[in-house]
Here is the input.
Amino acid sequence: MRREQAVLSRLAIEGGDPVRTSPFPSWPVFDEREERLLLEVLRSGTWGELGGDKVTTFAARFAAYQGARFGVCVPNGTMAIQLGLKALGVGPGDEVITTPYTFIATASAALMLGAKPVFVDVDPETCNIAPANIAPAITTRTKAIVPVHIGGQPSDMDGVLAVAKEHGVRVLEDACQAWGAEWNGHRVGAIGDLGCFSFQAGKNITAGEGGIIVTNDPELAERCWSLHNVGRVRGGAWYQHEILGWNFRMTEWQGAVLLAQLERLPEHERVRDAAARYLDGSLADIAGIKPVSVDPRVTRHGHHLYPVRYDATAFGGRSRDELLEALRAEGITCVSAGYVPLTSSPAIRRALDDLFGPESLNQLGNCPIAEEVSRDVFWLTQVALLGDDEALDSIVTAIRKIQAAWS
Ligand SMILES: Cc1ncc(COP(=O)(O)O)c(C=O)c1O
Here is the structure.
């Protein structure tokens, strides 16, 4: 159907024909590389990390990809953050400053260690933590700052590092969505003290589950390795445990799949980057639709999500969620309303109340911009960015069609 016709036809949600009937690209993507490496693991008889070479080879290659000297693989990104905070010395009663516009694991990792997440508001342009809000939140109990590179866009690491340095506080980057991303020429993950990545099923590089911690600090790297291997020391006896740790080891299956996925990542990054630029251009003149700004100091974007700000007044006052429902009916299935801010999360509220008492909930009203962003922003999910021009055009056509019907 030609674009003009599509825009003028009846909305699919009202019984009209949808703009798109074919699916968006499927995920995950694999080929004979994953198959070969998985068979190698199967036949080797070494299925766990210890004694195998897949996890350790992947850890070294991925760390190098991020410009870091060391990497320790773990079963998922949540465990990476928890272990990383523990390695930085975060414990009961400590405070960890972070953003509420993120996945729950960013904050639950601190709570699981008995530490208090302290939420500071985001930058309205980038939706990432606003460094200017960090210093006023620092107390004598602050141990770490956790900036999150949401959607693959690096946080303002100059600003974060400046506050951290001034106050002697450590920085753990939640880079769970930011493989390959770069702030001012430096790949994320080892800009701060530690960086954590996720390889969960929906991520741009995946083994179904998986995670890694990267760092340039040899002491921290050893501590992370020991913590992920039940407190063992390298070269020590099997039952020699010098500190309390977890069994947070990755399997060789995951290592094998990730080695193949890492080979494909640069090509996918190029496709995603081209798709994001194409969308930037084709969404630019639609009133009420504004792709979330990218800071000019971002030299490479990880392109996990393509976040868009929605202004209901340009769509007859219809809510963002009504738009998403109408888009899905038009066959644009790759959309998400995104996060509920963690300041409104029942789980976070309960945990704060249980651990720190009701007065610890007072901070939850301090992030009005994150609340606004959570209300107004929607995401095109990562498969959208693997779509060809026809797939991307169908997104734009569907938005125009809905706008024409509602205005
Ligand atoms: C920003 C962020 N932090 C942490 C995580 C946790 O990673 P995982 O799902 O691998 O535990 C995720 C992934 O879902 C994430 O997107």
Remarks:
- The mean pLDDT is 97.
